[in-house]
Specification:
SH3 type barrels; Aminopeptidase; 3 domains; 5-stranded antiparallel beta sheet; 8 helices; N-acetylmuramoyl-L-alanine amidase; cell wall biogenesis/degradation
């Protein structure tokens, strides 16, 4: 047995290491996948930050190989050079499958930096037809307009769940055709897209939360504390659990059945067990709850999805509510190659509800008031997703 002073020294050293080591998302060796650039012009930078040097640029449609992810940025190879691009302007190819890394590793922290609007030129698809895509209105009510923009005349009021065929795109707006044959433009933010028929999508989006099975996954646990806050030393695993419990309260109140991957801070289920629980329970949705970290000054929430067709609509619904009433700013949605998403057969998202490495975020998210607000937003997003 070590003398008390020696034990204390070891404990202090361990805490210093936990706090000081940067926590980032690193793709495991061999974890690569192909993706396509969706912006007209995309900067390639020397580091995963908007302030770093531009080393190259890519045009719309360029196919790239992604080998790493960090802070919402993707590491790619351009010719003989490597660089980083903002992940929000890249779409993983559906026929590209990443090689699974170490499935027992805890999900690492991935953050987004506040990239400037000039980081990429949005894709302009005026006159370019889509590949016969369909969508469903996700907002309670949505105006269809005569052109792509709010300055154009409103021609039709669409209701939530309305089935649409997408004809063209322009700067975030979609030219759509309704089942009645009427054509107009709507904001793409309020349309959940699907590659095939909307019949199944419409069927899913009915009835709200009542009777739905939701798996909540409070990240980390047991010997894995997750992130430790810089200022208040907030332990991530603890507030992951408390936030998930608040979400569970909201969901049960709305008539949903809730299943938790863990119910105490002593439990530490494997990532494979967490992902498999959704299938075992035949869940309608899987939500993994985390708080974030970054060696850079970054704040706000971030919602991750893996599958464009299976997960992205759920991510959009929850993020929209977090952005409206979560209590801190939202950084939007982003592709994330996490085990609990990648190996999950159910619609699933991973939520990062604030940065424990940012003093302002930590001071807010550690309080019950914020966690309850976030829980209400998450529940509302799920209700929207199911057409409530």
């Amino acid at each position: 047995m070590k003398p008390p002073i020696a034990r204390k020294a070891v404990l202090v050293l361990g805490m210093m290491l936990c706090i000081s080591l940067p926590v980032t998302e690193k793709a495991h060796a061999g974890d690569t996948y192909s993706a396509r650039v969706t912006a007209d012009h995309l900067n390639v930078r020397s580091e995963p930050a908007a302030s770093s040097k531009i080393v190259s640029s890519l045009s719309n449609g360029a196919v790239i190989t992604v080998s790493d992810e960090a802070y919402g940025w993707l590491k790619i190879k351009v010719g003989q050079k490597t660089g980083w691009v903002a992940g929000q302007y890249v779409k993983k190819l559906s026929n590209s499958t990443a090689t699974a890394g170490n499935p027992a590793a805890s999900p690492a922290k991935t953050a987004t930096t506040n990239t400037s609007k000039s980081e990429a030129t949005p894709k302009s698809a005026v006159g370019n037809a889509t590949a016969s895509k369909h969508g469903v209105v996700s907002a309670d009510k949505l105006w269809m307009r005569s052109g792509p923009g709010t300055n154009n005349e409103a021609t039709e009021l669409l209701q939530k769940g309305a089935a649409l065929t997408i004809v063209k795109r322009e700067n975030g707006w979609l030219q759509v055709r309704t089942t009645a044959g009427k054509t107009g433009w709507v904001s793409g933010r309020y349309v959940d897209e699907t590659g095939g028929s909307v019949t199944a999508q419409t069927a899913r989006k009915t009835g709200g939360l009542r009777g739905k099975v939701i798996v909540l996954d409070p990240g980390h646990g047991g010997d894995d504390p997750g992130v430790i806050g810089n200022k208040y030393k907030t332990i991530e695993k603890t507030i992951n659990l408390s936030t998930a419990q608040y979400v569970a309260e909201e969901l049960r109140r709305a008539g949903a059945k809730v299943v938790m991957t863990r119910t105490s801070d002593k439990e530490q289920p494997e990532l494979s067990q967490r992902a498999a629980l959704g299938s075992k329970q035949q869940a309608d949705a899987f939500v993994s709850i985390h708080y974030n970290a970054s060696p850079k000054k970054v704040s706000g929430t971030l919602t991750f999805y893996y599958s464009e067709s299976k997960d992205r609509p759920l991510a959009r619904s929850i993020e929209a509510r977090l952005g409206q009433g979560g209590g801190i700013k939202s950084n939007g949605i982003s592709y994330g190659n996490y085990h609990v998403l990648r190996e999950n057969k159910q619609p699933s998202v991973l939520l990062e509800l604030g940065f424990l490495t940012d003093a302002s975020d930590e001071s807010v998210v550690r309080k019950d008031d914020y966690q309850r607000k976030a829980a209400r937003a998450i529940a509302a997003g799920l209700n929207d997703y199911f057409g409530g």
